[in-house]
Amino acid sequence: MKIQKLLFLPIVALIISSCSSVKVTTDYDTKADFNKYKTFAFYKKGIDKAPISDLDKKRIMRAVEAELIAKGMTKSSSPDLLVSLFTKSRERINVNDNFYGGFYYPWYYGANRVRVSQYTEGTLFIDLLDANKKELVWQGVGTGALRTRNVEQKEERVKEFVGEIMAKYPPGSKNK
């Protein structure tokens, strides 16, 4: 029975590690009073520089807007915060060897011992700027695989990225 449990552990670890997730980091101005920010608008100058399609920009902006409204903020023509975004992507290669701890597990990937896959890793930067000072006060960065086959999956992946990033705003919130 113990042997079966030991053989089962690598399979569970593989399943958990293969789940698509977004790695998030944030940085912020420790002197900024985030309680004073009640309204927002998108910073067109910054968003226009993002090297993605206009459709993807709209998807991201809608997701950010929904997240900020859910946090009690309102969109305004005279905002407290300006929202900017930037993206980058790179091709990644993943090499998996189904040899674990001196034991060979052919059922992981079939009879082949090594599996190589290629995917695109995307990074989304969401910058929040103090509208009066035009200074960056908060930045959230999310990185993850961009495995999307259709428009609906792309929409869901964008919502996931933005949701994970914006869960860290404002700093010190219990949603971390």
Sum up the structure in keywords.
31% helix, two-stranded antiparallel ribbon, 8 strands, alpha/beta, Double Stranded RNA Binding Domain
Average pLDDT works out at: 82
Distance between the termini: 39 Å
CATH-defined architecture of the domain at 21-95 and 123-166: 2-Layer Sandwich
Radius of gyration (CA) equals: 21 Å
Looking at the structure, the CATH topology of the domain at 21-95 and 123-166 is Double Stranded RNA Binding Domain
Beta percentage is 25-35%
Structure annotation, total helices = 4
What's the β-strand tally?
8
Class by SSE composition:
alpha/beta
In brief, what are we looking at here?
By secondary structure, the chain is of the alpha/beta class.
Describe the structure.
The protein has a domain at 21-95 and 123-166: Double Stranded RNA Binding Domain (2-Layer Sandwich). The chain is 31% helix and 35% strand. It has four helices and eight strands, in the order αββααββββββα. It has helices at residues 2-18, 44-48, 54-70, 151-166; strands spanning 23-28, 39-42, 74-75, 81-97, 99-100, 103-104, 114-130, 135-145. The protein has a six-stranded mixed beta sheet. The protein has a two-stranded antiparallel ribbon with strand order 5-6. Strand 5 (99-100) and strand 6 form a beta hairpin. It is elongated. Mean pLDDT is 82; it is low at 3-18.
